[in-house]
Amino acid sequence: MNGLVSQALAEFKAGGRVGDWQDLAFFKDGSAEAVAAKVDAMVATGAQVLPGPAQIFNALRLTPLDTVKVVILGQDPYPTPGDAHGLAFSYRGNRRLPASLRTILAEMADDLELPMPRAGDLSDWARQGVLLLNTALTVEAGQAGAHLKFGWSALVDQAVAAVSDRQSAVVFLLWGGPARQRATLVDRTRHLVIESGHPSPLNRLRDFRGTRPFSRANDWLEARGLKPIDWRLE
């Protein structure tokens, strides 16, 4: 019997439509099933995997390929139960906002002259076409980075390449080394790439704040006749 992650994968694939994420090779050649099997094997040993199975593919489900306007790449989900829900950097916990997200939202507030949000759920961004995709879609509770080598990264590479190939005008916000490595997958003749350091407080260069990625992204989208992203969070 398949584990819960394999079942969630099967449901995600069954809910796809022609031309959407489910057409990626990752979901066609057995790669996705192999990764899901690894995650289910960890669950079978008693490990708690986050987020819950129903939320693992939220980034792809909330932002179909043909709706993508902006791409933001993260690393892996928050390793504290209840915090992550399948969107990079997005947070649903009840404590203080995670440090990197706090930095992102502070930059957004300063850049757009908006109040600093008190909550960190970025679902509204995703529904407007902001693909919030992590390099790994799962993690073990209390063990950040535990699934980074499980094979999820192939999905990220293929997703970035597909957005570059199939969409006409997208802003790629690449923050930090792993995300910036994907810049080579983007056709810069059609898309805008904005690179900077990571918003993490561990980034000693502090080269994220002041880069104004949100206004720059919206200015570029509007210049091409596209509706800008409403970055405000209620």
UniProtKB/TrEMBL annotation:
GO annotation (BP), single: base-excision repair, AP site formation via deaminated base removal
Active site: 76 (proton acceptor)
Domain of life: Bacteria
Keyword annotations: Cytoplasm, DNA damage, DNA repair, Glycosidase, Hydrolase
Cellular component, GO, one term: cytoplasm
EC category: hydrolase
Name of the protein: Uracil-DNA glycosylase
